Amino acid sequence: MDAVLFIYTIVGFLLASYSVIANDCVQTLGTFIASNSEKFKWYYLWGAASLVLLFTLWYGWSINDGDISFGRLNKIPYQEIQWYHAAAPAVLLLLTRVGIPVSTSFLVLSAFASTFILEKMLLKSVMGYAVAAITAYVLWFLIARWFDEKNDPVREKNKRKWRIAQWCSTGFLWYTWLSHDLANIAVYLPRQLSIEWMLFVSFVFVSLLGWIFYEKGGKIQNIVLNKQGTRYVRSATIIDLVYAFILLFFKQYNDIPMSTTWVFVGLLCGREFAIASISTNTYKLKHAFPIVGKDFLKMMIGLGVSVAIVMAIHNL
């Protein structure tokens, strides 16, 4: 690898690492941060998340012949990194800083994948959004009748149990999500990484994760905070478990990458509508529609930017 290509590779990898973690971290760790930031120092939460991150990274590397993408890049062969490949995460970084929940899978992988693969990614992501929304609506339509976080909070004797359950569910979700979205960063790297590369990648990931916890999720965290009950440990635990099992299902479905952001937004959408449907207070469907619609609009903005990038690259 000559010097110019090496520079493009490092720049693309660093931009993708920060952009993907900063933008998508809220999906898996957002409820964890929201419900624990007042109970624990940020570096304790960072340490726990880093352990799961390092286990996932090195486990995937060991069982996939040096490939950390868990097979998500089987249909996207390695390409020599050019300047326009690094431009995709740079755009993602800008959108992240203003709090837009962009699909990193579309925005980053669009610079590498064929239009045929992007079409399959879009179809799988739409399926993920629909499955997550329907599942969340049905579950919370039933669950919300028993769990009223404001008027019927967790009893003091059960708080420790729910806290432990949430940490376990977050760890499971964090592992499952990483097995999907590491592909969005690994696409910039050789498919078989050496020990030296792995040490460098591990250092970068853990450092960036520490910054995210220090910032308490950043601006994109508002997507979680403006939803009903996400600061409560009981609700956060259930959200994490449902999201993890949906991601696990699609991970086993096939090896085509998908937008985990769309699945996450679909999950919160279905949950929000379910809570509004059975609410006996002032929170009604008319209040849920603007919140859900705003998130959906941001997703469409991200998709539009992704399509623009892939069209520009193919035309150039």
Main traits of this protein?
mainly alpha, globular
Structural commentary:
This protein has 316 residues and is mostly helical. It has one domain (3-315). The chain is built from 12 helices and no strands. α1 (3-36) packs antiparallel against α10, α2 (42-63) runs antiparallel to α8 (195-214) and α5 (115-143) packs antiparallel against α10 (233-253). The longest helix is centred in the first third of the chain and has 34 residues, at 3-36. The protein is globular and about 60 Å long. The mean pLDDT is 80.
Entry summary:
The chain is mainly alpha-helical and 316 residues long. The chain is 73% helix and 0% strand. The chain has one domain (3-315).
Mean pLDDT: 80
Question: What is the total domain count?
Answer: 1
What is the percentage of strand-forming residues? Answer: under 5%
- Looking at the structure, what is the overall shape? globular
Cα(first) to Cα(last) distance is 23 Å
**Any idea what the radius of gyration is?**
19 Å
How many strand units?
Answer: 0
Q: List the secondary-structure elements in sequence, H or E.
A: HHHHHHHHHHHH
Structural class, from helix and strand content?
mainly alpha
- State the helical fraction: over 70%
Unreliable residue stretches: none
Largest sheet: none
- Per DSSP, the total helix count is 12
